[in-house]
Amino acid sequence: MAVEYDAIIIGAGHNGLVNAAYLARAGKRVLILERRPIVGGAAVTEEIYPGFKYSVCSYVVSLLRPEIIRELDLARYGLEILPLDGTFTPMLDGHYLMRWSDHAQTRREIARHSIADAEAYEEFGKLMYHMALLVKPLLSMAPPSPTSLNPGDLIQFARLAKQLRDHGGKNLYDLTKLMTVSSADFLDAWFETEVLKATLAASGIIGTFLGPRSPGTAYVMLHHYMGEIDGVFRSWGFVRGGMGTLTQAIARAAQGFGAEVRTEAEVDQVIAKNGPATGVALSSGEEIQGRVVVSGVDPKRTFLKLVDPSRLDPEFLDQVRKYKMRGSSGKVNLALSELPNFTCLPGDGPHLRGAISISPSLDYLERAYDDAKYGDFSRRPYLDILIPSTIDPSLAPPGKHVMSIFVQYAPYHLKQGTWKDRREEFGDGVIDTLAEYAPNLKSAILHRQVLTPWDLEQEFGLTEGNIFHGELSLDQIFFSRPIPGWARYRTPIKNLYLCGSGTHPGGGVMGAPGRLAALEILNDWKRGKIR
Fold first, then answer.
1. CB 380 within 8 A of CB 372
2. H-helix or E-strand spanning residue 293
3. Which region holds residue 279: left if phi is over 0, alpha if psi is between -120 and 50, else beta?
4. Residues 375, 424 share a domain
């Protein structure tokens, strides 16, 4: 007799694993199905080159919700987050900017460039802290519907309005401005130093097909600003053992609660023949029954590939097709025989133990975006770099290092050629750009792995290579994510739910979509909506 599960989770990315853990903790019989041979989705550690362990896609952690760490007791399962020292921005003219994790130390560093900016940075930090406090409650709530007269939705809106009102009128005005302007315009009002503005603005373009002067990027900057480690805002860290250690810890927590995990089990279709979802069919032909099916993959992949389109309203399908998934990022991972030697700040030092940002000016970032706008990858891209082996030596042999390079921009749709044919050209451009700042880089490379948006789609199932499962634009956040009217993790097909980054509150290694979806599913169970 076929086994029936209470819940089948499609995809063992971090959100799928979090969702499974919460459902299993509530006593549900849960099965997680993963297409790849390892769990973790885009948050994995793999030994691509002997002796060197790469965090292949995701490479830093900060947005992971503290309640998830606490409620799933992830420290017990091996999660240890090592804080990063700061952000080093080298410049070709021999200067550099260093933003330390210590606020006072950063002020002194900024004062080398501008006394006025050092003073403004104090007030800017306070503003962003208050903005993060304003938005933080949204990360722990399922978005209410603005058109609903349901008492629960009305109560949520009332609570949200009170929280916003309690922070004062000026903060509400500042938040409105932050939600609508570009990161460049927002920062121009605060600072005069180009390298400072560019380094701050860079977090507003990560994962978006927008430039620093595009409206809406200031909100993306705030989204990344809400990172939190041990209660400290704007803290970023690296997981000891690589990002795969994080997802392995969540998987072990889920298994500890009784969840089952199957790898190399690709879901071909959600079974929903006569109404509600009743299970899934694997590409092998096997069918598995479940009372609930939860998709951790992005909305387009879910509704356009896993679900029979005849089961969906044409208007809904049209909205899904219009959902913006424009991939804009790539990744290069390196095995190095020695540390990079930056001309502006030679030798080893604490500047190599945090993030390294190639973002010398706003014009530099905008020109990188210009290349992408016209269908090509950036000739001189924005690079966000980490050398994790400087803080976790277990990732590389003694004296050697691994380097993680996030690359922006790399549009999924190229005007000329294909990503498969131009992958190495893209990688060469990244290395050439970084070598302008650290001339010894090329001779230190033992191995490189180049991931384009096409590779992210083919290998990790990210439609168009979009790392957030959909852009974080104003029309695709909160109660409009992913589709207006369907923002509470439910779908038009009864008993089929979403729990990936394409749902509220969005992308990054956050886990909030997985947790909130699980709470909504359990609430439906409690109310008798699932049988």
1. no
2. strand 287-295
3. left
4. yes
Give the C-alpha separation, 98 to 100, whole Å: 6
Shared domain for 415 and 475, answered yes or no, is no
pLDDT digits (tens, 9 = 90+) for 444-492: 999 999 999 999 999 999 999 999 999 988 899 999 999 999 999 999 9
Asked whether the CA dihedral 457, 462, 468, 470 is positive or negative, the reply is: positive
The reply to whether 453 and 337 lie within a common domain is: yes
Q: Which of these three, 199, 234, 269, is where a domain ends?
A: 234
CA 157/CA 436 separation, integer angstroms: 52
- Residue pair 269/297 in contact by the 8 Å Cβ criterion: no
DSSP E strands, 107-236: 228-229, 232-233
Q: Which residues pair with 402 in a beta bridge?
A: 335
Residues 380 and 432 in one domain: yes
Residues 456 and 472 in one domain: no
Residue type, 426: F
333-359 average pLDDT score: 97
Residues 23/52, Cβ–Cβ less than 8 Å: no
- Count Cβ neighbours within 10 Å for each residue of 423-441 and write b for 16 or more, e otherwise: beebbebbbebbbebbebb
Amino acid present at 524: D
Final residue before a domain boundary, out of 234, 268, 301: 234
Parent domain of 377: 325-460
Residues 295 and 176 in one domain: no
Structure tokens at 194: 């180009």
Residue 390 in 3-state DSSP? helix
pLDDT in tens, 157-189: 677 666 666 666 677 778 888 888 999 999 999
Residue 42 and residue 156 in one domain: no
- At 312, give phi and psi (nearest 5°): -115, 145
Residue 207 CA to residue 83 CA, distance in Å, equals: 23
Cβ atoms of 512 and 489 closer than 8 Å: no
**Does any domain span residue 91?**
no
Predicted confidence at residue 1, as pLDDT, reads 39
Token pair belonging to 204: 């507003």
3-state secondary structure of 522: helix
Is 515 inside any structural domain? yes
The Cβ of residue 314 has, within 10 Å, a number of other Cβ atoms equal to 9
Number of domains in the chain: 3
Predicted pLDDT of residue 173: 78
